[in-house]
Amino acid sequence: MLKTSDLISSCQNDWDAYTRHRFVCELGNGTLPEGAFRHYLQQDYLFLTHFARAYALAIYKCDNFADMRYPLTSLQGTLDTEITLHIDFCKKWGLTETDMMAIPEATGTVAYTRLVLDAGQSGSLVELYAAMAPCAIGYADIGQWLINKSDTVFDGNPYREWIDMYGNDEMQEAGNNCAAQLDAMMRDIPKDSAAANRIKKIFRDAVRMEIAFWEQGYQDA
Ligand SMILES: Cc1ncc(CN)c(N)n1
User: Fold this and answer.
1) Which CATH superfamily is domain 4-28+52-220 in?
2) Residue-wise pLDDT tens digits, 64-109
3) Hey, is 123 helix, strand or coil?
4) Which intervals hold domain Thiaminase-2/PQQC (predicted)?
5) Pocket of ligand 1 (CB under 6 A)
């Protein structure tokens, strides 16, 4: 049976490059260039809009009421918690929601979000979840890592609130629920089957998109 941990270990180098990226380390020690962070915040607003649509697509793809509950809860969590926190957080950085809606999508944002939506439109529900999983599982991992890392700077770090947001219990729970849901959906998929290889490829492509999302903060700012 295929597990989420197999998906991670099948692309361990990319996973580490994503979750331990220079952008993440610089958030932790407070040295990230402000322009890169602002660019990231603006693009993340657009990213989250499409991510909410992907949960709605997951609901659409479910064929029974019980299965609809997970993507529905995740969609509610995205709208009521993550997007709300993001909008409040952006306000403190002088970015209004109107500003962010008017900003053009960067190429990395288009590539990542459309990859996820395409996985859902042209593939199965489990393939859609595989494309979405690096988001929730990766950020929960990053948040916890930064909170526990001995050289993370808390006092005077302009990015402290971001660290607290992704290190908090709610985000950890969202990451764990996402992995548990994916495990349950993959329980009948043999590890070395064609279906498993397709899922691993989709997961890895999404991880590579997360790396590109960090990178575009430096390149486009
Ligand atoms: C690009 C990206 N990836 C993941 C997350 C965490 N939901 C996020 N806010 N933005």
Assistant:
1) Heme oxygenase-like (1.20.910.10)
2) 999 999 999 999 999 999 999 999 999 999 999 999 999 999 999 9
3) coil
4) 12-218
5) 44, 47-48, 82, 135-136, 139, 210, 213
